[in-house]
Amino acid sequence: MRHKIRSNFFTGLLIIIPVALTFWVLYFIISRLNLLLLEPIMKIFQIWLPDRASVEFFTKLAIFFILLALLTLTGFAAKIILFRNIFGFGENVLYKVPMISTIYKGLKEMSAAFLSNQESIFKKVVLVQYPKNGVYAIGFITSEARGEAQEKTKENVINVFVPTTPNPTSGMLVLVPQEDIIYLDMSVADGMKMIISGGMVTPPKADHGNTENRSDTFKKEGFQGN
After folding, report:
1. Which among 48, 67, 186, 219 could disulfide-bond with 190, CB atoms 3.0 to 4.6 Å apart, if both were Cys?
2. CATH assignment, 120-205+213-220
3. Neighbour-count burial of 191, counting CB atoms closer than 10 A to its CB (0-12 exposed, 13-18 middle, 19+ buried)
4. Residue 128 bridge partners (DSSP)
């Protein structure tokens, strides 16, 4: 019996104390706002309302709405900070997971480096024979080769970035003859997913009906590098 009474007593305290503290805090804030704002706001209302009772009523009503606005803005700011802390905690957890941390860091760095611009520096997804003939690697066309690199090659070469798996922020720049490039229909995003997943995520083949040779399309589009 004594144990139940004690339990109910502390349960009542747990309910009453937060409520009492809330009302005390609200009373403190309202009294402070009245000291700070009552006279200035009353002077404003006195211009339109000659009756002092009406002026005081509308002044306190205005202070009440100001308090509501302050509490709402405080709650909104607290939510932003809370979500930011939750996101930061989750990010720290991801950084500690061996395989996932590499993928997550790669995605974050890639987004910062390449997706911050309005236009991606990657133009098309392609297959190139790398690091030797008969072995194919997924790459991204960045631009047409120019200058000395183009002048000293017999073929028309294209700059292709071949990223590493699962961290696509590192890789190799290879200059590939245009006729040796196999153009893929998948989007840059799908190509990046395939690389980061190590081939576990493979986009379905795009159905374009009677598609023309991708190399011819490349020429017709008049691709210009950055």
Report:
1. 186
2. 2.30.30
3. buried
4. 137
The torsion angles phi and psi of 69, rounded to 5 degrees, stand at -65, -40
Provide the β-strand partners of residue 182. Answer: 127
Is residue 163 reached through a cis peptide bond, with omega within 30 degrees of 0 on the bond before it? no
Write down the residue that tokens 């720290």 correspond to.
Answer: 92
Q: What are the extents of the domains in the chain?
A: 2-96, 120-205+213-220
- Give how far Cα 110 sits from Cα of 49, 99, 170, Å: 63, 17, 10
How far apart CA 190 and CA 37 sit, in angstroms, is 59
Residue ranges, the chain, pLDDT below 50: 118, 208-215, 217-222, 224-226
Q: How far apart are CA 138 and CA 113, in angstroms?
A: 19
Residue 136: the pLDDT is 94
Rounded to two decimals, the pTM is 0.44
Task: Evaluate whether 174 touches 142 at the Cβ level (below 8 Å).
Answer: no
